[in-house]
Amino acid sequence: MLDCKVVGHSTTGRTCVSTLDSNGSGYSETHFGHQCPTFDYLDINIVVDRRFYDYSISTLFYIGPYRRTQEVFASAQETYWKQACVLLRMNSYEQTYISAFTPPCFSEDCGDSPNWPGFDAVAVDGVNPNTLLDTLKSTVLKYQADAHYHAFHLFSGANFGDGPIGRAFSGWEVCIPSSGTRRAFGVNQISFSSFLFHQATLFAHELGHK
To answer: Is 42-207 CATH 3.30.70.1130?
Structure first.
């Protein structure tokens, strides 16, 4: 863990939290019944595609994409805290589609979100995860250049075919031109299993490539 005396950003983009309180005394924080004397935290932006919406409604008995995203994130959050003293925070939740209906429509009736034009035309069954990862990165850098995040991950319902069910850039290798900071990106075929543990393990694994 980072050993900091003040709150600040490390060169990797993560934020380290002080091991001393305002009185100069040591403190710790507890989550999930586990105490960490010092810890890092990561702000994660999550986006879900139309296929993930269809999957969450048809396969997960109308749980819905937002609720399932929260469940997957919370499970991975517990793993990172207990095993690495890293606190994951969901900084934002987005959908690649918009709809005039409540709840949202199925994918064939939805329009593109302004921040995600054309994305769902790429996120289809058989897509190469490398292509999807590149599309995620380029779309975010073009339409959300000033967004705050340490990592941006896609939860997809598309079938990646015979290839891997997840892909991420290794290390903090994506440089943001406007600021010179580095960020991480990843794509996850959440629909590969209906079991929450499997889905959370996939997300935690891909996030670990950062």
So the answer is: no
Encoded tokens for 130: 């490398």
Which ranges of the chain have pLDDT less than 70? Answer: 1-28, 99-110, 171-181, 210
Please enumerate in sequence order all residues whose Cβ is within 8 A of that of 185, keeping only pairs 6 or more positions apart, or say none: 133, 136, 137, 140, 151, 152, 153, 168, 169, 174
Return the closest-CA partner of residue 48 out of 120, 106, 133, 114: 120
Tokens in use for 12? 């990797």
Which DSSP string do the residues of 78-123 spell out, in sequence order?
A: HHHHHHH-EEEEEEEEEESEE-SSSSPPPGGGPEEPTTSTTHHHHS
pTM: 0.81
DSSP helix/strand/coil, 38: coil
Domain ranges of the chain: 42-207
